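User: Predict the full complex structure for these chains.
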Amino acid sequence: MPELPEVETTCRGIAPHIVGHTIAAINVRETRLRWKVATKLLQTKLIKQPILGVTRRAKYIQIHVSTGTLVIHLGMSGTLRVTHPKEPIKKHDHLEILIGNSNSLRFNDPRRFGAVLFCGPTQTLSQLAHLGIEPLDKAFNGDYLLQKAHKHRKAVKTFIMDQRIVVGVGNIYANEALFLAKIHPQLTCNALTQDHCNKLVAAIKKILKAAIKQGGTTLKDFRQSDGKPGYFSQNLAIYNKEGLACRQCQHAIKALRISQRSTYFCPNCQVL
DNA sequence: ACTGGATCCTGATCGC
DNA sequence: TGCGATCAGGATCCAG
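Assistant: Here is the predicted structure of the three-chain assembly.
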């Protein structure tokens, strides 16, 4: 679930329910996430603090208070939802934050690849220290990508998923963007031309913007039990479409693995 | 210095 | 129906 558009949608979804309200309690039910949750620190720093705002950096959700920032990463399977405190706790609800007296913010993550961190006001978390540029930033352009690309010789798909280069592009959108830009996922990045980079940047921006617009579909009601999968799946052109006809040319879509990740491409539209 | 592979973990799905 | 194998939207760590 957690691609950049969904993280963005999560931020927008929870913010109206929690910003301006005060944190009353923190319940940590499982500390064994990506990194061990610092329960005491969270309680000390967050309880009685009014929430000042919610922002996103890469795929990290940042909940700001005067003493610092609560930083949450959804990993592969995490969700954040706002419910009424009386709603029963679900399996894998690892963190509960009681906000005001009628809201409960809950972090659920079956696979526990997610993270819950705290960042002091003058601190920079190591996890966020070396993040690359935001894909929707103006500074993310063809020139930038080309300049980074010629230093590497890995597959372009792996390259655009490297968050030190550009953040927020996960496996699905990497597949989709490369299809849209008509670039073969196995093309090595030192073979990328200016034209490739221009098209790829445009494709990444286009796909992410479209997905953010659609992002509400699964997460439209954060108060309900979780929406079913497939928020953007109706619009996917290539991901998980092995054997189906390419939208552009009707050739059969092929699958392969690049760096252990499922990769889909049209052998006619995306040539090496 | 870069790159690919293994790894953390649970749950869904598929083939036998 | 049950069982094992495989795979999943992420990111880090380690060996070569």
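DSSP finds eight helices and ten strands in chain A.
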